[in-house]
């Protein structure tokens, strides 16, 4: 599942991103309301988690503009504005669910997955799976299958393979992969991404899909033969 988190609090979005990636979701973060709509258009997420109090522009205005453009991505509003009136405003603006702060991380994850189940398979062009050769990534569960068998991958390896399978045949930079695999982990050395790549490459060696290094560009997945 690909999630776009629009939240300006650095500590909160770091915690949320780390937790959701560990739950085997691919998470993009936008912290500036003025850039949120452009990010939403380009990212094409499965679910958007949207804070209302953003710098530059109010979250409700972003939501109204997105709906006016025809962006039908399911939206979970996440905000400290917890009154009934605020909830009604958000739902009337086009939100699909509403979770006031403070909240429980498990409840947030459950609500996001419920939104994806309700909307993901019926959205135009949406697909629950990513396929490359004999590999299939189930976007709803986050599991990677080789033919009909689930592969034994760590959460970091799953985050890496999901980022690569989302762009088949295209190189993804080490910097971008580091952000996806180690979200908000400032104490991790940049070279740690190479360790995850090495381990994933070994596990993919018998699948017919190769993890290729393109010097100066990053990594890509390529179906052999």
Explain this structure to me?
- The chain is 40% helix and 21% strand.
- The protein folds into two domains: 2-122, Rossmann fold; 129-223, Arc Repressor Mutant, subunit A, CATH 1.10.10.10.
- The chain has a five-stranded parallel sheet, with helices on both faces. The protein has a four-stranded antiparallel sheet with strand order 6-7-8-9, covered by helices on one side. Strands 10-11 form a two-stranded antiparallel sheet.
- The protein is of the alpha/beta class.
- Helix 2 packs parallel to helix 3 and helix 6 packs across helix 8.
Topology:
Blueprint: E1 2-6, H1 10-22, E2 26-30, H2 33-43, E3 47-50, H3 59-68, E4 75-79, H4 84-93, E5 97-100, H5 105-119, E6 129-132, E7 135-138, E8 144-146, E9 149-150, H6 155-165, H7 174-181, H8 192-204, E10 209-214, E11 218-223
Parallel strand pairs: 1-2, 1-3, 3-4, 4-5
Antiparallel strand pairs: 6-7, 7-8, 8-9, 10-11
Helix pairs in contact: 2-3, 6-8
């Amino acid at each position: 599942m690909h999630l776009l988190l629009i939240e300006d609090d650095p500590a909160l979005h770091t915690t949320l991103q780390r937790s959701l990636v560990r739950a085997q979701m691919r998470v993009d973060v936008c912290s500036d309301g003025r850039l949120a709509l452009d990010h939403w258009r380009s990212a094409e997420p499965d679910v958007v988690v949207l804070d209302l109090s953003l710098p530059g522009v109010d979250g409700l205005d972003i939501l109204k503009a997105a709906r006016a453009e025809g962006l039908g991505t399911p939206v979970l509003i996440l905000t400290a504005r917890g009154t009934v009136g605020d909830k009604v405003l958000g739902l009337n603006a086009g939100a699909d669910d509403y979770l006031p702060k403070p909240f429980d991380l498990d409840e947030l994850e459950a609500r996001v997955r419920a939104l994806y189940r309700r909307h993901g398979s019926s959205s135009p062009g949406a697909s629950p799976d990513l396929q490359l050769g004999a590999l299939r990534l189930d976007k709803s569960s986050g599991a990677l299958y080789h033919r009909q068998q689930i592969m034994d991958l760590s959460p970091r390896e799953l985050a890496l393979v999901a980022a690569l399978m989302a762009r088949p045949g295209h190189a993804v930079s080490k910097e971008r992969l580091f952000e996806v695999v180690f979200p908000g982990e400032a104490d991790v050395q940049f070279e740690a991404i190479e360790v995850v790549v090495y381990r994933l490459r070994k596990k993919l060696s018998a699948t017919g899909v190769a993890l290729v290094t393109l010097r100066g560009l990053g990594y890509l997945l390529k179906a052999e033969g």
